[in-house]
Amino acid sequence: MILPTAYFPSILQLALMIQNGSYWLETQEHFVKQSFRNRCEIYGANGKQKLVVPVKWRNHSPMHEVELSYAENWQKLHWKSFESAYRASPYFDFYEEDFRPFFEQKEIQYLLEWNRQLEQTVCELLELKIELKETESYETCEPDYRKLISPKNKALTQKLDFPPYLQVFGDKHGFIPNLSILDLLFNLGPESVTYLKKLKINL
């Protein structure tokens, strides 16, 4: 199974990782704009909210060469968004200090490394052991999750059954499925693992 890099992966992507036990991280594909590679979706006061990590890249740049851009203080903006969205959730205070340091430094150069460290932190908090290997060339595969897992692929989310759980603003906008893994983590905490393992994925 080959998966794309992702900024705080979607619930579906982490469920695939857990249920498979291992995966290949795509490092050789060209950077894909408007994808989860440098964005995540959270549940804000006004509903679904997307957060985008600015990057520096050229046409046909392979993923392993895409750099983070610190020209804007996007880290401060993202952290404030996380606080506004999840401060009232059951587990935000519990996990806050595990994530805050990432948004107070500018030492990580590449998007792949940024995403990988955040993903590793999530896995450590949930005590997950998932084997990761990096691709050394671009290979075709079916199903191709690199294309399927996309903010544009709304049909995929509608096709799968994501059991509802309590969300901070659920009483205002209803249940929003398949957001960033942060939504699940801050709302369910350790129970997130059970949710991810039980998620039925038929693609």
Brief overview:
The protein has 203 residues and is an alpha/beta fold. The protein is 37% helix and 13% strand.
Q: What characteristic shape results from the CA principal axes?
A: globular
What average pLDDT do the residues reach? Answer: 94
DSSP strand tally: 7
Number of domains: 1
Distance between the termini: 13 Å
Alpha carbon gyration radius: 16 Å
Beta-strand content: 5-15%
Q: How many strands, which pairing sense, and closed or not: the largest β-sheet? A: 3 strands, parallel
* Structural class determined from secondary elements: alpha/beta
Give the H and E element order.
EHEEEEEHHHEHHHHH
Query: Helicity, in percent?
Result: 25-40%
Number of helices: 9
Low confidence ranges:
none
The side-by-side strand order for the widest beta sheet comes to: 1-2-7
